[in-house]
Specification:
Helix content is 88%, strand content 0%. It has four helices and no strands. With 92 residues, the protein is mainly alpha-helical.
């Protein structure tokens, strides 16, 4: 995704939040549909979790704070342990 794409999405968010949300859903669905079959359920569950937390938050500052917390949780609980397991495999 290009800088131009991000500018367009930012503009859409500011001008028409409902249209932005619709496009966000469409892009997310497209991404999940194009993922390998074995990852699609995991991606859908992650998206549901994300939406559950983010959509009920009012202010942008709180959304940013919650997004950071969710991303750190993903890193700590999923990404980092997976990388450590992979590293163990390489050390053998």
């Amino acid at each position: 995704m290009t800088t131009e794409f991000h500018k367009e999405m930012s503009k859409l968010y500011k001008e028409d939040p409902k249209a932005f949300k619709k496009e966000q859903i469409r892009l997310t669905e497209e991404l999940i549909q194009n993922a390998p079959d074995h990852l699609q359920l995991k991606l859908r569950l992650s998206q549901v979790k994300w939406d559950k937390h983010i959509d009920k938050i009012g202010s942008q500052e709180n959304r940013l704070s919650m997004a950071r917390a969710l991303l750190m949780t993903q890193f700590i609980e999923i990404f980092n342990p997976t990388m450590q397991e992979l590293a163990k495999g390489f050390k053998k």
